[in-house]
Amino acid sequence: MIVADARDGMEYPMITMDNGSDPGYRGLLAHEVGHNWFYGMMNNNETYRPMMDEGFTQFLTSWSQEKIDGKYVASNPAKSKYINKFREPREVREDEIYYGYIRDACLGKDPQLNTHSDGFNAVL
Predict the structure, then answer these.
(1) Cα separations in angstroms, 100 against 1, 6, 40, 58, 77
(2) Quick one: pLDDT at residue 124?
(3) What strands lie across the sheet with 15-18, from one edge to the other?
(4) Over the stretch 32-48, which tens digit does the pLDDT of each residue have?
(5) What is the pLDDT of residue 118?
(6) How far apart are CA 10 and CA 32, in angstroms?
(7) d(CA 115, CA 71)
(8) Which residues does 57 contact at the CB level (< 8 Å), separation at least 6?
(9) In the prediction, which pLDDT does 31 show?
């Protein structure tokens, strides 16, 4: 697997492009490697069944971050001593999986599982 430094994350067969800032790239790297593995091993069509592809890679992202950094999200300290003093740690599973789903569900942006990838309204 080749990892290239880029502005954003994207996977291609045997190459992944990730934002090169530490520690933020760790989850992105795991996510993009997950896309490569799931596509290659399961031979799924990620445009026809995106929920399988993204669902698995979201699980893999949180699982790998917990294995690499522990239960809490790794982050750089803030420049403000006040913020560092009162900042509470965020759990990886909640941050990577639950909060995103709850946010989308509350906004009514949780599409059906069998939605084709063209049916999602992505904001770029």
Answers:
(1) 28, 24, 26, 11, 23
(2) 42
(3) 2-5, 15-18, 10-12
(4) 888 888 777 777 777 78
(5) 81
(6) 6
(7) 32
(8) 31, 34, 35, 38
(9) 84
Q: Identify each DSSP E strand in the chain by its residue range.
A: 2-5, 10-12, 15-18
The HSE-up count of residue 107 (CA atoms within 13 Å, CB side) is 8
For 79-117, write each residue's pLDDT tens digit.
Answer: 898 888 888 888 988 888 888 888 888 998 888 878 887
Judge whether 88 and 65 are in contact, CB under 8 Å: no
Q: For residues 108-123, b (16+ Cβ closer than 10 Å) or e, as one string?
A: eeeeeeeeeeeeeeee
Cα–chain-centroid distance for residue 13?
Answer: 18
Nearest to 25 by CA among 38, 6, 2: 6
User: What is the C-alpha to C-alpha distance for residues 39 and 87, in angstroms, rounded to an integer?
Assistant: 38
- For 104, list phi and psi in degrees, rounded to 5: -65, -40
For 7-26, the pLDDT digits (tens) are: 777 777 778 888 777 787 78
